[in-house]
Structure formats: structure tokens, C-alpha cells
Specification:
Layout: E1 2-6, H1 12-19, E2 22-26, H2 34-41, E3 46-49, H3 56-60, E4 67-70, H4 80-86, E5 89-91, H5 98-113, H6 116-124, E6 145-149, H7 153-160, E7 168-172, H8 179-185, E8 187-189, H9 192-198, E9 201-204, H10 218-223, E10 229-232, H11 241-249, E11 255-258, E12 277-279, H12 288-305
Parallel strand pairs: 1-2, 1-3, 3-4, 4-5, 6-7, 6-9, 7-8, 9-10, 10-11, 11-12
Helix pairs in contact: 1-12, 5-7
This protein binds 2-keto-D-gluconic acid.
């Protein structure tokens, strides 16, 4: 039997499925350190990860490893140059999380715009002595302009929801989406600068790449309206968190909603003392149904990638399909 590592605690029934095909080493404890991950990958043919960094060092120490299935749509934790050089297949879990993640983007955006968590903290702290007409004035969602940066599958699901709020949708993406999608979403393409100037609510839904590092920094925040909100459900590092803290403190923008952070889970501690930011611990895809779907899809990819099961050799979601069928190097 081939050997696999499941690097994270996941649903036990998914582990049972994997055991039908593999000898499973299951980490049910804390996140593995780089050293521990390297040690446990050493004799494995495959692995199921969830954001765990896998690069040249891990691959070099694991000469049998042929497939790493990430339980996430984003796979910036994989060093793809190293995967390609070693003919190791990476897979991800697109689509199954689109709707839950889009729902959550709205939850964060609305909480930021309408100051939900800020006012709740105030109430819980016993500060509500009288009603005031000007307490926690926020900005409207309905009838406003939504700016989506990153119009992939999740961005489109997010934009689709704007119809119910009678919002105008503008978007920026590496390339324009098909005219029929623009028409369906009633979305207008804009340059990043134009979008930042015009949008009342900016949501980031783009993958993290070196080119996208600090896509939103001090210069970009300076373009935004003082009443605008910024929501990040994409990846830490896309926003310069130091610049964002400054923009929130100085009210250069009204509020932010963040599910992802630079260096998470060790986030910039200054964010904790900024009232006009809603903070959540990377849970945009975290519904029972969606996480189950992600875990099962990652397992399916691993099973097929390692040549087992009904789709043997044809995993659904290869991120570097060119290496399929090539010998490990
Ligand atoms: C994952 C995510 O749950 O899919 C992604 O890219 O950010 C989340 O849905 C998280 O990254 C753990 O792998």
C-alpha cells in the first residue's frame, strides 16, 4: 500500500475513505512545524495539506512523494517551481467553496460598513446608557458601488449577490471576463486606480502571487473614499497591513473587514486596537458542508493522483497537469 500523510485534523470519515487505498499517517495534533512536516513526509507517496508550506527542501527530503493535495483553492503554500522541477503534482479544491466564501465576503463587508462588531463590543462593555441618533453611523450597502478586485469564480459569486442590494458593480482583474459574464453581473471593468476612487465597498478576491504582494498599500488606500470599506477574503500579503492600520486610524477609509492577514496567525497586533476593523480567523470557507466538500475533493484528488480509485491517474483539480505521468525526479 502507498503511504500518505494527512497533515491536519480533518473529518474522520474522510480519513476512513483514504484508508481504503493508503497506509495513512494522520496528524491529529497541532500544525506541524517545517521540521516535523519534512520528517513525516520522508517516506510518503502523497500528502493532504491545508496551507502547509511545501517547497524544495520538503520535496528533496521526500524522494517518493508524487502528489500533494491542498484542501484549499489557494495554493500559494506550494512552491510550484520546486513541484515542477521534481515532477510532483499539486492539486487544489476550487468551486466547492465559491458560494460559502462569497456569503462570508458579504458578511464581513456588511459588518464593516454597518459597524456590527464595533457596536457589539461597546454594548458588551456596558457602555449603552442611552440611545443616540448619531451612534455608530455607518455607510449604506444598498444603492452603492461595489468594487471587486479579482473576478474569478468567488469574485463572480460575490458580485452576483449585489443585484439584491441594487448596487453598481465595477471590477478589476488581470484580464476582462467574458462579455456574457459582464452582462449577467452587470459589471463594468475598471483600472485598479479607477475602481479604488469610485467604489464605496472594495472586496479583494484575488490569488496571492509575488506580483499581487501589497496590491493595496498606502498609495492605493489614499485613493479610496473616506466613507469606503475594504474587505479582504483572499490572502494575507495582498494588503500591506501596516499601511491599513494607519489608514483606519487616520480615518482615511471608514472601515475594513479582514479574514486573512500577513503572517497569520501571528497578525499585526496593532490591528487589535483599531476599532473600525472586523477581524475573523481565516474562516470564509468554514461551513460544515463546504469544509466537508473541500476535504472530500482533496481526498479524491489524492486518490486519483496516486493512481487509485475510479479516476486513477486523472485527478479533477491538478494545478500543474504537465507533470502527470512523468517520473519523480
Ligand atoms: C482554506 C482558503 O480553508 O481555499 C482557500 O484558499 O483560504 C480556505 O478556504 C484555508 O486556506 C486552509 O487551507
Amino acid at each position: 500500500m502507498q503511504k500518505i500523510l494527512v497533515a491536519r485534523p480533518i473529518f474522520p470519515d474522510v480519513i476512513e475513505r483514504l484508508k481504503q487505498y493508503f497506509d495513512v499517517d494522520w496528524n491529529q495534533g497541532d500544525v506541524l512545524s517545517a521540521d516535523e512536516l519534512t520528517r513525516r513526509l520522508a517516506d510518503k507517496d502523497g500528502a493532504l495539506t491545508a496551507g502547509d508550506p511545501v517547497g524544495a527542501a520538503e520535496l528533496a527530503a521526500a524522494p517518493r512523494l508524487r502528489v500533494v493535495a491542498n484542501m484549499a483553492v489557494g495554493y500559494n503554500n506550494f512552491d510550484m517551481a520546486a513541484f515542477n522541477a521534481a515532477n510532483v503534482l499539486g492539486t487544489n479544491t476550487p468551486d466547492v467553496l465559491n458560494e460559502s466564501t462569497a456569503d462570508f465576503g458579504w458578511a464581513l463587508m456588511m459588518a464593516a460598513a454597518r459597524r456590527i462588531t464595533e457596536s457589539e463590543h461597546w454594548l458588551r462593555a456596558g457602555q449603552w446608557q442611552k440611545w443616540a441618533y448619531d451612534a455608530f453611523l455607518g455607510s449604506d450597502l444598498h444603492g452603492s458601488t461595489l468594487g471587486v478586485i479579482g473576478m474569478g469564480r468567488i469574485g463572480q459569486a460575490l458580485a452576483r449577490r449585489a443585484k439584491g442590494f441594487n448596487m453598481q458593480v465595477i471590477y478589476h482583474n488581470r484580464s476582462r471576463v467574458a462579455p456574457e459574464i459582464e452582462a449577467e453581473l452587470n459589471a463594468e471593468y475598471a483600472s485598479k486606480q479607477d475602481l479604488l476612487r469610485r467604489a464605496d465597498h472594495v472586496v479583494l478576491v484575488l490569488p496571492y502571487t509575488k506580483e499581487n504582494h501589497h496590491t493595496i498599500g498606502a498609495a492605493e488606500l489614499a485613493l479610496m473614499k473616506p466613507t469606503a470599506t475594504l474587505t479582504n477574503i483572499a490572502r494575507g500579503g495582498i494588503v500591506d497591513d501596516v499601511a491599513l492600520v494607519e489608514a483606519l486610524r487616520s480615518k482615511q477609509i471608514a472601515a475594513a473587514g479582514l479574514d486573512v492577514f500577513e503572517g497569520e496567525p501571528n497578525l499585526n497586533q496593532d490591528l487589535l486596537s483599531v476599532p473600525n476593523v472586523v477581524l475573523t480567523p481565516h474562516i470564509a470557507s468554514a461551513t460544515e458542508a463546504t469544509r466537508r466538500a473541500m476535504a472530500n475533493l482533496a481526498a479524491d484528488n489524492l486518490i486519483a493522483g496516486l493512481g487509485e480509485g475510479p479516476r486513477a491517474g486523472r485527478p479533477l483539480n491538478p494545478v500543474n497537469p504537465d507533470v502527470i505521468g512523468k517520473a519523480r525526479s
